[in-house]
Amino acid sequence: MSLEPIERAEVEGELVDLDHDGEPDVFRPGRDVAKGSGGELVEHTGQQVDQPAGRAPIELRVRRIERRPLVPEWATSAEGVREVVVFAAGHAGHVVAFHMIRLPLYGGKVLAWCPVGLARLVAAGARWVLDAEGHAMRRQVAKGSDPDTHLRVRAEGRALVRRRATMAAVLVGLVATGGVLAGLLVPLVAYLAAAGAVVALGLAGAPKDKPIASRAVVVERYVRLTSEMVERGLRSLGLAAMTAKGARIEFPAPIQRDGPGWRAEVDLPFGMTATDVIERRDRLAAGLRRPLGCVWPEPASDEHPGRLVVWVGDVPMNKAKAPEWPLLRAGKVDIFKPVPFMIDQRMRPVGIDLVFWNMLIGAMPRMGKTFALRLVVLAAALDPYVQLRLFELKGTGDLGMCEPVAHHYASGAGVDAKEATMASLRDLYQQLETRAATITRIAKENPAACPENKVTPDLSRDPRLGLGIVLAMIDECQEIYSDKEYREEAEKLTEGIIKRGPALGIILVLATQRPDAKSLPTGVSANVGIRFCLRVMGQLENDMVLGTSSYKAGIRATTFTASDKGIGYLAGVVDDPVIGRTYGVDGPAAEKVVKRARLLREQAGTLTGHAIGEAQIVVNVAEDVAAVFGDEPKLWTTTILERLTGYRPEVYTGWTPEQLAAALKPYGITSGQVWGTTAEGKGANRQGYVLDAITRATRS
Ligand SMILES: Nc1ncnc2c1ncn2[C@@H]1O[C@H](COP(=O)(O)OP(=O)(O)OP(=O)(O)O)[C@@H](O)[C@H]1O
Fold first, then answer.
1. Which residue in 50, 128, 400, 626 has a CA-CA distance of 20 to 30 Å to 144?
2. Exposure string for 527-563, b = 16+ CB within 10 A, e = fewer
């Protein structure tokens, strides 16, 4: 690029018009600039400092313009259009049916008010003929004016009345003649005209405050949220930056209706963040003069931290009528698809994906934790292929109605329930190895059946593979984590299951009313995918359930009040945590769902374990192998598998040598070449195990 020096810019911090085109140029002060071959300004270093010719102005290129949609959002999807059409048709149908039913009543009312209407018509006609309004005005003009004007005005008035009387007489004559002729020639038209006249007179006669037709729909009207109200609310927060001179509150988008409420987007004054407002939600509600349960300030996380979204509901969220759980009366679940869990403030359903995830539910007592976790169990129960392992360590039997579909079940605050929980966890931990081995084998043999090295719906439903989806739920999980005897082992088992279980089809759901470091190990809380936090007391509990720094980011379950039962933050489902209320399914309703779920399982042949009265089998592979060894010091793997299948066919049928090796790995037992003899008495060296190693492992 050829450079043509023009001048040296000396002025610090100012934009100078170097090329004399009337526009200040962009440059770095104190540096030499030159004109490039295209006429643009460049530094001597060859680095361009001005925009090249032929490009859009820099202001346009750097400004981020958000284009608002051309058509409303609902018109862009078939589902949205369908919803609007269905609503409009339903509304119209209702209005028509409502009035049709009342037609006889309307007829009676019309007849009753018809004479009044006729009297009003005659009175109005007489006023027009006599020019009642003009008469007063003429009297005013004539008063005090000279006799000539007086006489002229009176004469004009009389002439007008005469003209109008003639016109009225002609009109009445025409109507009467037309009526008689129509009556003689086309009676139907005459009847219709008479009926129309009666209806018109009836409508005209009815009092304004008691119209003939009743209202078919009552439209509830709520206070409109205006920018002045939002501004007043924000300025009343007691924040200096909000009230400082020149502090500007801006609205990047119009305040809009959003579900059953109003949504305002606000750019806060410089130096303020959305969290400054969120932590003062109560003051904002006071400033807006709305109940606390109506006011929901949220950060707009895909924008800058100073952008706030305030959603103001028409009625407090805890008083809004919640829809019924969609699966309450009918339907079954495919656990590989999202299950309905809650509704957000805008009354939109929010579902959760359970497969490939774990879940943590935390709350203060009596805020709706049991309701929330029961929903998860009920949803999973409606997929007959999901094995349920339910442990409720408080002993109140909150999950008792789910016993008829549970493979493992224990309820209690004592050692028995904890031991049953630990045994089930140990079994699942062991299954991590066998499942991983099975998945690896399938992925190798038939990559198409297992494309992502994860359980698929088909694999999970093949009973021979042992890859069925298991949902294990521990309510009041702090009981095992705070028990000296179990703490360490429980931490190791649950951490392993949480990290490796999802891909292998094992879902762990933990619930606690004491979410602190002692009752919920960080290795567990940090690795959970889906988090639901109902009301909690402080920042620590909030971050324990919702994830580190959530409180700082304005995601605060501490702002819920005592009456916000069932209302919580759900994180990990969509990009940003959402506030919602779980569907309220109480105990008796849950029992009915469980009955349906049991029927589904009976039909699918998947009722097992506790549900059919079997005691929880606690499988310890190392002990089982020791049991089948007998007195022989060494055994081939194939012989062990044969004996295991005979020993516990319900567990070991179909096991492969790899599965056995994987199951024994956690005990530190490995296979090697061992000497043995075939049934024909021939000696050979084959893969197998040594009894000594096994007894050592089972004793430790
Ligand atoms: N989604 C909901 N909709 C309406 N009410 C709810 C909802 N969830 C919970 N509640 C109400 O809150 C009460 C307490 O709920 P729940 O029993 O689930 O609390 P909890 O936290 O499990 O209590 P605890 O700590 O005693 O086990 C329920 O009796 C119910 O009335």
1. 128
2. ebbbbbbbbbeeeebbbbbbbeebbebbbbbebbeee
Enumerate residues lining ligand 1, CB below 6 A.
Answer: 363, 365-371, 513, 565-566, 581-582, 584
- At 24 the pLDDT is 45
Q: What is the pLDDT of residues 165-211, one digit of tens each?
A: 999 999 999 988 988 888 888 888 888 888 999 999 999 888 888 88
Q: At 504, is the pLDDT very low, low, confident or very high (cuts 50, 70, 90)?
A: very high
H helices within 340-486, ranges in order? 369-381, 415-445, 457-460, 478-481
The answer to whether 506 and 431 have CB atoms below 8 angstroms apart is: yes
Ligand 1 atom 9: residue of nearest CA: 368
Residue 367 and residue 484 in one domain:
yes
Rounded to two decimals, the ipTM of the complex is: 0.97
Q: How many domains does the chain have?
A: 5
Pair 295, 380 in one domain = no
Report which protein residue has its CA nearest ligand 1's atom 25: 365
d(CA 410, ligand 1 centre) in Å: 21
Confidence of residue 62 (pLDDT cuts 50, 70, 90): low
Binding-site residue numbers are 363-370
- d(CA 415, CA 421) in angstroms, rounded, equals 10
If one counts every other C-beta atom within 10 angstroms of the C-beta of residue 522, the result is: 12
Tokens 């008035």 correspond to what residue?
A: 157
- What single DSSP character describes residue 24? P
Range of the domain at 298: 227-313
Q: What is the pLDDT of residues 11-51, one digit of tens each?
A: 333 444 444 445 444 433 334 444 444 444 444 444 444 55
171/288 same-domain check: no
Ligand 1 centre and the CA of 293: distance in Å?
A: 17
Shared-domain flag, residues 160 and 124 = yes
279 and 415 within one domain: no
For ligand 1, what atom is nearest to the CA of residue 363? Answer: 21
Q: Which atom of ligand 1 is nearest to the CA of 534?
A: 21
The closest-lying atom of ligand 1 relative to the alpha carbon of residue 586 is: 30
Bind-site residues for ATP: 363-370
Residues 602 and 674 in one domain: no
In this structure, what token pair is assigned to residue 513?
Answer: 């009313």
Q: Would you say 356 and 378 are in contact if contact means Cβ atoms under 8 Å apart?
A: no
What mean pLDDT, rounded, does the chain reach?
Answer: 84
Residue scoring higher pLDDT (77 or 666): 77
CA atoms within 13 A on the CB side of 170: 6
Residue-level length of the chain: 700
Q: How far is the CA of 322 from the centre of ligand 1 (A)?
A: 15
359-362 and 261-267 strand pairing: unpaired
Q: Which of 317, 370, 377, 585 to mutate to test the pocket of ligand 1 (most atoms within 8 A of CB)?
A: 370
| Residue 4, pLDDT above cutoff 60 | no
Token pair of 645, please? 């299948």
Residue 202: C-alpha distances to residues 74, 96, 208, 439 (Å):
42, 21, 12, 81
Candidate of 366, 374, 535 to mutate for ligand 1, largest count of ligand atoms within 8 Å of Cβ: 366
> Do the Cβ atoms of 454 and 440 come closer than 8 Å?
no
Q: Which of 361, 367, 560 to mutate to test the pocket of ligand 1 (most atoms within 8 A of CB)?
A: 367
Q: Tell me, what DSSP letter sits at residue 263?
A: E
Angle at 489 between CA 486 and CA 493, to 5 degrees: 125
Q: Whose CA is nearest to atom 16 of ligand 1?
A: 368
For the CA of 567, the closest atom of ligand 1 is 1
Count other C-beta atoms under 10 Å from residue 661's C-beta. Answer: 18
